[in-house]
Design a protein that fits this description.
single chain, 452 residues, alpha/beta, 6-stranded mixed beta sheet, 32% helix
Length: 452
């Protein structure tokens, strides 16, 4: 975390552009207190307008004289020009060097009401091939600073439903129902994020049946789902559909027919269909490259997992290059970043490699899905300490500001909540009461920092 954030708080951090807002700078301890008998100079510079000594004709520069208020804070009203980051420099005297530089971001008005939520849209637990139990994975990822996440176990929908029920009403952490879909005749992985029913469970026999047979409670969030079909019936149906797929190889025709059928159900169950890790290397590249391009161009999915799964360049780097190449050619897909995690602690080298920031009006699964579909998301690569972001340049800039100025504070609050979630998993009933007391801390922080 930047050292200045230990010394001063500034709020709101994000405002609407060209709108008057009251900004407060609050010292965070004796060492950073303002002298109440002193007048301070506040100079504001819009970062993308560059150095005023070199480009003096540029706009986005404001200078104010401010005295500390009764609470010892510097409070001033200002309208920030256009979209972008603004440095807030504090001076003991007009001609002195700044002793503090803070940042505020202004957004265009289409972002009104859109709060940044960080999460993961693809990960696994010990219900399939992961290491930890679903409720422990949820606790660990809340502790890592996530606002939402999905349990997308291979072939199983019920682990996500179990976890949602376990934490019901005691946390603001949004746990989304989901699954990774694996159906006959298709080797292309596919994630159902937030759908109302299991797609794996539509073909019998299903691994989802291991919980309670064909009980709708474990394959649907609302008690509604299509009747499952037998594997033989499914295969015959796919073979017929595959006849119209324009691919030379039969394996690809069959595979793509399954993808189209899957996407039809994704749309019917209000979920988000994610095309994950086509450049995953498991001895060989998971998919033939020209088949990957065919799928990408045809688009039987809602979002592309541009980052996730591995920490080698030929995985995420190639996916990123494909995304930007397709975008340059007029095919602009929504993007997400996910860990594809199989272990949720620091002992898994890939536990925290990627995430997604979604700019949504609510931390609720259908709002998150709507925001991603409308391209209000950016993928975050945290394989190393030098993070990078992939997506529209507008969101890359805003996301970078958030990674530097908001999420470090947000993550500290989440860490404590994750600890008590783990205590609750371990059977500590006192933790349940603590969690109920902590519930609301992140929404309150968002209300403080986002005047949008």
């Amino acid at each position: 975390m930047k050292s200045v954030l230990y010394n001063y708080d500034i709020y709101p951090k994000v405002v609407l552009a060209d709108t008057e807002n009251k900004i407060t700078v609050k010292p965070l301890g004796l060492h950073s207190e303002f002298d109440k008998n002193k007048e301070y100079t506040v100079k504001i510079f819009k970062v993308d307008q560059s150095n005023p000594s070199v480009y003096p004709e540029r706009s986005g520069r404001i200078s104010l004289a401010v005295n500390p208020d009764e609470e010892g804070c510097l409070v001033f009203s200002v309208s920030l020009e256009g979209e972008g980051e603004h440095f807030i420099n504090l001076y003991d005297a007009p001609d002195a060097r700044p002793f503090c530089t803070l940042s505020v971001y202004s957004l265009e008005h289409d972002m009104k009401g859109r709060i940044p939520y960080r999460g993961d849209l693809h990960m696994h637990t010990c219900r399939s091939d992961g290491r930890e139990g679903p409720t422990s994975v949820a606790a660990n990822y809340r502790g890592h600073g996530y606002d939402f996440f999905v349990i997308s176990d291979h072939r199983r929908f019920y682990p996500s439903l179990e976890t949602i029920e376990f934490y019901k009403d005691i946390t603001d952490f949004t746990i989304v129902p989901g699954e990774e879909i694996h159906l006959p005749l298709n080797d292309v992985h596919y994630v159902n994020f937030g759908g109302t029913y299991s797609i794996n469970a539509l073909v019998k026999p299903s691994a989802n049946e291991e919980k309670a047979g064909d009980d709708l409670k474990y394959r649907s969030t609302d008690g509604n789902a299509p009747d499952p079909m037998e594997k033989e019936e499914f295969i015959e149906m796919i073979k017929e559909r595959a006849k119209s797929v324009p691919r030379e190889n039969e394996s690809e025709r069959l595979s793509y027919a399954v993808l189209e059928w899957t996407y039809e159900h994704i749309k019917a169950n209000k979920g988000l269909g994610i095309f994950p890790h086509p450049y995953w290397l498991c001895q060989m590249m998971q998919l033939p490259e020209d088949y990957t391009r065919f799928i990408y161009e045809k688009g039987p999915f809602d979002a592309f997992e541009v980052l996730g799964g591995e920490n080698i360049f030929s995985h995420n780097g190639f996916q990123t290059s494909l995304y930007y190449e397709m975008k340059a050619n007029g095919i602009d897909r929504p993007v997400v970043g996910s860990t594809d995690s199989h272990g949720s602690t620091e002992h898994n080298r890939n536990a925290l490699i990627c995430s997604t920031i979604v700019f949504a009006k609510e931390n609720e699964r259908f709002e998150l899905i709507d925001a991603i579909k409308n391209k209000y998301s950016v993928a975050v690569d945290t394989i190393s300490t030098e993070y990078r972001l992939v997506g529209d340049f507008r969101w890359v800039k805003y996301g970078s500001f958030l990674m530097e100025n908001y999420f470090p504070l947000h993550d500290l609050a989440c860490k404590a909540e994750g600890y008590y979630m783990n205590r609750y998993v371990a059977g500590d009933e006192r933790a349940k009461n603590v969690l109920r007391e902590m519930k609301g801390q992140i929404p309150e922080m968002q209300k403080k920092y986002f005047a949008i």
